[in-house]
Amino acid sequence: MDLKISDKVVFVNAASRGIGRAAAELFLKEGCKVAIASSDQTKLYATAVELKKSTGTEPEWVVCDLNKPGDIENAVKAVSSILGDIDILVNNCGGPVSGKFDELNDNDWTDAVDQVLMSAIRMTREVLPGMKAKNWGRIINITSISVKQPIDNLLLSNSLRSAVTAWAKSLSGDLGEYNITVNNVAPGYTLTSRLYELAVARAKESGDSHEHVLASMAANVPLKRLARPDEIASMIVFLSSEPAAYVTGQTIVVDGGLTKSTY
């Protein structure tokens, strides 16, 4: 299938590893002009070098702490000055701290709001003028299956990723007239460093090994395995494509059948 996004300008956040990195790689293979961002310059540069080896094209890269509004503004300006106005924005971020309600303080909540919700809002605000001027745009938010089926001990993530989902649904109604689509991809258990960290945390609570925790997660999935980052990235890229132009305001779950919800 021809996705018709060659030469589109793509900006992927939190792309030094995991799903963000996988998405950047697939966009490069589609012939897009790609910029990646992360708060860790060392990992970001290493990822850019690795992507050049795997795709033949090195992405632009910019250091950006998504909790800092100034970093977001500067990052978009830097990418736009080099590649042009951004056509496809992938809002991605690391997960906020785990914990139950009485384990979380106001600072935890404030940080999570900035990290998960406000980063997507601020980044989108910066790219929208260019998208509107072109009368074309794609905004993809990476959330979690927790928006359909909350995950134990992830109160912050459950709450804020659900907020992103509601915001995106509302925004999609406002932007349809500009030929800009807004969708969410909700991954299930995916083999990333974030999942490994969660498995280690659960293992400490249960006294089990993290390997057994990961195996138990896989056993609960109907497909009996954890997802690869590129499998999530494939949905991100498709929703960014021209063939997906009539899909907007949706949350697409990619979880191997794990979520029990029927809607």
Task: Describe the protein's architecture and organization.
The protein has helices at 18-29, 41-55, 69-83, 106-134, 155-175, 193-206, 210-219, 229-239, and strands spanning 9-12, 33-38, 60-63, 88-91, 137-142, 180-187, 251-254. By secondary structure, it is of the alpha/beta class. The chain folds into two domains: 9-189 and 228-254, Rossmann fold (3-Layer(aba) Sandwich), CATH 3.40.50; 191-226, no CATH class. The protein has a seven-stranded parallel β-sheet, sandwiched between helices. Helix 1 packs parallel to helix 2 (41-55), helix 1 (18-29) packs across helix 8 and helix 3 runs parallel beside helix 4 (106-134). The longest helix has 29 residues, at 106-134. The mean pLDDT is 95.
List the helices and strands and how they pair.
Layout: E1 9-12, H1 18-29, E2 33-38, H2 41-55, E3 60-63, H3 69-83, E4 88-91, H4 106-134, E5 137-142, H5 155-175, E6 180-187, H6 193-206, H7 210-219, H8 229-239, E7 251-254
Parallel strand pairs: 1-2, 1-4, 2-3, 4-5, 5-6, 6-7
